[in-house]
Structure formats: structure tokens, C-alpha cells
Amino acid sequence: ELEIEKYEKSKATTEVDPKRRTVVIDREEGEHLGLRITSPEPNTVAIVGTQEGTAAERSKDQFYKRSKIVSINGESTGGMDMDGIIALMKNSGNHLELEIEKYKKPKKAASDADADAD
After folding, report:
1. Each residue's pLDDT tens digit, 80-113
2. 3-class DSSP state for residue 111?
3. Which of 10, 66, 97, 107 has its CA 20 to 30 A from that of 3?
């Protein structure tokens, strides 16, 4: 007989942010990671694509159109610049867990927009 357990989410349970997810990339020894990244604003690094024939390409369907990197193998990337994030990825070996969230460019304040119009 098959037992089925009903799962009910308790209100005390920490809710997972639906805009965040973890993408796991495992690469073979010597294989290129193949992430295309950019720094759209200070201390923010976003994944904008993958390179064909690389480890990252196998996971490309898990990324958002623009994915902000929140942590790498559990280490927060908050406050890191692009060079710091690249170094962290290079030192992560062949197993990479990227916590990502949708990246949305911040809206300019009305005063900024006015200044740009000059």
C-alpha cells in the first residue's frame, strides 16, 4: 500500500523568495565555466548569458534573462565588485552553486532624469 503524506506549509516556516533560486553548475576538469557577466551598477554583477559548449550552457534554462548573483557556494557577493566575484568563481573548483535573483535596473529619480535632459 502506498502512503501519501500531505505537506502543509506552516506559517512559522521561512518562505522562499520566489524571485531567487539556486543554479548548480558542475564542470569537468579543465572545462570552461562559460558565464557572460556584466556590472550594470557598482557592486552588482549580473549574468547576461552563457557561452556555447560550456558547463554553464547546460544550466542556461535556469537563469533569468538578467540574473543578479547573490551568493556563490553560500558566500554572499554583497558589496563585491566584478573582479572579486570572478576570483570567487575561479577558486570554487568544479562545483558552483549560484544563488541568483531577477535583476531589475533601478529607476532614476525625477531629479536624475531632469539632470540627464540638459
Report:
1. 999 999 999 989 999 999 999 998 877 665 444 4
2. helix
3. 10
